Each structure stands twice: as C-alpha cells, then as structure tokens.
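**User:** My hope is that you can spare some time for a protein that puzzles me. As I understand it, each token names a local backbone shape. I would be glad if you read both lines and explained how they fit together. The protein I mean follows directly.
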Amino acid sequence: MSSNAKKRFIIEPHSPYFLHPADGPGVMITAVIFDGINHELWERAMLIALRAKNKVAFIDGRLARPAPKEDEEFSECHAWDMANSMLYS
C-alpha cells in the first residue's frame, strides 16, 4: 500500500453497521403500527425487530457517531451515517 493510499473501514456481518440487502428505506420491520394508544406493544415489537437486526445501540445511545478520520476513504463515521440513515428511513 502506498503511503498516501487511504484506508477503508470494513463492515463485518456481525457489526451493528451491517445492512442486509433486504434492509431498505420504507421496509416494514414489524406488523405492529403505533396508533397513539398501543405504545407498550409497539415499543416491544420495535425493540425485538431492532435487536434481531443488531441496531438497538443506535436508538438507545450506546453507539454514538464516531469522529471522522481523514486517513480513511470510508470510515466508521461513514458506516454509522449509512446505518443511522437507514434506521431513520
């Protein structure tokens, strides 16, 4: 590797940053729809779905956005932004 080649952050399948090909904007992850009354049921269904996708740390604050790294072409910060954006969508 040359001295000015930038590193790439690698996303492993067990990483919370991993996005499965079936994960996409607008994909319904639970059949329970929040109706303003069923918060407890909806929250439980969402946590189970997010736990299955290894994404709970994004919403409970355990996985904060990492600082960008200038020496990386694709950094952990970029991976966090991608996964977080998918969760918002």
The mean pLDDT is 91. The first helix runs from residue 39 to 52. Strands lie at 7-8, 72-74. The first strand starts at residue 7 and ends at 8.
